[in-house]
Amino acid sequence: MYGTQLEIVCGCLVGGAGPAGMGLLFNALKSGALPALTRNGLIIVDASPFPGTGRLADYHLTANSVGDVFLDCLRDPALRDVFEPLQHSEAYWRIRDQAFIAPQLSDVGELLAEASKLVLDHLVKNYAVKVWSSTTITEVVSNSDEYQVWVEHNGHSQVIRCRSLVLNLGGHQDPKHLLHALADQGLALSPKTRVQSADTLLRMDADELRAHFSPVLAAGGRLTVVGGSHSAFSMLENLAKALQCIGLEELTLVHRSQIRLFYESVEQALANGYVFDPVDDVCPVSGRVNRSGGLRYSALEVGRNILQYGRISPDGVRVHLLQSGPGRGQQYERAGQALAESSVVVQCTGYQPRLPALKYADGRPITLREVKGGLDSDPAGCPLDAIGQRMHGLYLFGLGSGLGIDPRLGSEPSFDGRIYGVWQFHNDASRAAIESVSARLDVQVAEKVVADRRRQQRAEEETPFFWPAMASIKF
Ligand SMILES: Cc1cc2nc3c(=O)[nH]c(=O)nc-3n(C[C@H](O)[C@H](O)[C@H](O)COP(=O)(O)OP(=O)(O)OC[C@H]3O[C@@H](n4cnc5c(N)ncnc54)[C@H](O)[C@@H]3O)c2cc1C
After folding, report:
1. Residue 236 pLDDT
2. Is 381 in the pocket of ligand 1 (CB under 6 A)?
3. Ranges of residues in the chain whose predicted pLDDT is under 70
4. Relative to the CA of 115, which of 54, 196, 225, 435 has its CA 20 to 30 Å away?
5. Residue bearing the CA closest to ligand 1, atom 53
6. CB atoms < 10 A from the CB of 465, how many?
7. Is the CB of 59 under 6 A from ligand 1?
8. Fold category of 175-259+295-347 in CATH
């Protein structure tokens, strides 16, 4: 157990057991890959005292998919016995009741937390998996073909050596990232403007938002949200709902490219009068419009209202949509002016992966190469370092890292971001990682067999051979 040895060796370490790390474990259980994944030891390390939950439940917003999408992650014959206790769970029935509507993320998080606990208990009992809760990964050293993962628990440091490291510690929003992105477009904020992370604000309830923003509104300050995704529209909705009663009259959204709405089909989009590109915005596999990048459910409703009435809801807070990037409807000057005049700018421009210090064995720091929306990684989530070397054995696909579009599954050609979401973590996003980890462990087992054989041969060559009968004779 942790705390007793300075160095521990295992085949695979899952660092971070939020929806992404847990998605890989659920998927391994479903696909029968657990015996392979655990045969040289599997350790799960998470900073939380209750691993398996992550951040999802903390957000005060509606999911971007219906409840059934989350239930689908638990629906598999291999999981039936493990999840039997969920039949008596309130959280499970609450999501079942919302199978065809988008539930609150707090409900989704509660269900995933209960399901994750059942899976973790099952892994500990049946596969001798070790779960190190309240343990923080502080540093990762890449040393030839393995990773040395430094962890801290109760003030003690230890190192775990592993051949495969699945590292999904969530994401964060670095204000520098926003300032660089704006500078790339020739835009800047006033030195007096405060940049606020949407991640923090989306975790506040209405009372907390009011307490936070009332001084800004009392001083007549302007609020601008930057971004164009689901969370940008949810942010507008949360701010409008919480602050209208204390005098908020208008909000501004500065977005780089056109606001995209999701539709199940071209016919549905046309019937709604939605203008889209029939090639670039339509997924060739599913026929859906803006399948990856379009607003859905409550964010879609907010988006439609803003496009139609210029307001959050027909009689709600006014919203100015200002497109800063090229294209139809560009309003670059007005966007620049709004940013320069804003007291608070809310950063909704995606996430960067939360990473511990990463180093090579000689002490050089490792920088992972980024692309739009996440990390430059292969389909298994293996990233590249700054000089383009593949970090074999390291897998990241959670918030802030994401994965590129799989052409077999399809997406609209105009989408150039990274994909992440609970269903992906439980299915496509972790499948390639599981295969790659298993393949590396196969090689490790084969290498061990060869090394053991060599060691045995050497021992036989060095040790004088005794006939068994002579072994007891005293010379
Ligand atoms: C606002 C918002 C809304 C979203 N809505 C949806 C949605 O509706 N549907 C959907 O499918 N997806 C949604 N997502 C995307 C995604 O599913 C969630 O962000 C999800 O929480 C990501 O899971 P994760 O495991 O990557 O990160 P997290 O949930 O942040 O989990 C990270 C885990 O790593 C642990 N950890 C962190 N640091 C350390 C450390 N140093 N050492 C050890 N452990 C550590 C934490 O304790 C935690 O358990 C949303 C994302 C955001 C930001």
Report:
1. 98
2. no
3. 1-5, 444-452, 455, 459-460, 462-475
4. 435
5. 199
6. 6
7. yes
8. Rossmann fold (3.40.50)
Query: What is the CATH number that goes with domain 7-172+352-447?
Result: 3.50.50.60
CA–CA gap between residue 150 and residue 152 (Å, rounded): 7
Q: What is the pLDDT of residue 468?
A: 37
Q: Is 231 in the pocket of ligand 1 (CB under 6 A)?
A: yes
Residues 443 and 420: their CA atoms lie apart, in Å, by 30
Q: Which atom of ligand 1 lies at the shortest distance from residue 56's CA? A: 21
User: In testing the pocket of ligand 1, which one of 55, 107, 140 has its CB within 8 Å of the most ligand atoms?
Assistant: 55
Q: Which residues contact 301 (CB under 8 A, 6 or more apart)?
A: none
Q: Is ligand 1 within 6 A of the CB of residue 65?
A: yes
> Is the distance from the beta carbon of residue 173 to the nearest atom of ligand 1 less than 6 Å?
no
State the pLDDT at residue 5. 65
Burial of 59 (0-12, 13-18, 19+ CB in 10 A): buried
pLDDT tens-digit profile of 331-374?
Answer: 999 999 999 999 999 999 999 999 999 999 999 999 999 999 99
**15 CA to centre of ligand 1 in angstroms:** 13
* Domains of the chain by residue range: 7-172+352-447, 175-259+295-347
Closest CA to 311 of 238, 251, 261: 251
pLDDT value of residue 330? 87
What distance in angstroms lies between residue 2's CA and the mean position of ligand 1's atoms?
25
Mind giving me the DSSP string for 237-268?
A: HHHHHHHGGGT--EEEEEESS---B-BSSHHH
Angle at CA 197, nearest 5°, toward 228 and 296?
30
Nearest CA to ligand 1 atom 36: 169
DSSP code for 349? S
How confident is the model at residue 143, as a pLDDT?
Answer: 93
Report CA(165)–ligand 1 centroid distance (Å): 17
CA of 339 to the centre of ligand 1 (A): 29
Burial label, 87 (beta-carbon count in 10 A; 0-12, 13-18, 19+): exposed
CA of 19 to the centre of ligand 1 (A): 6
Bridge-partner residues for 142, per DSSP? 147, 360
The CA 460 to ligand 1 mean position distance, Å, reads 53
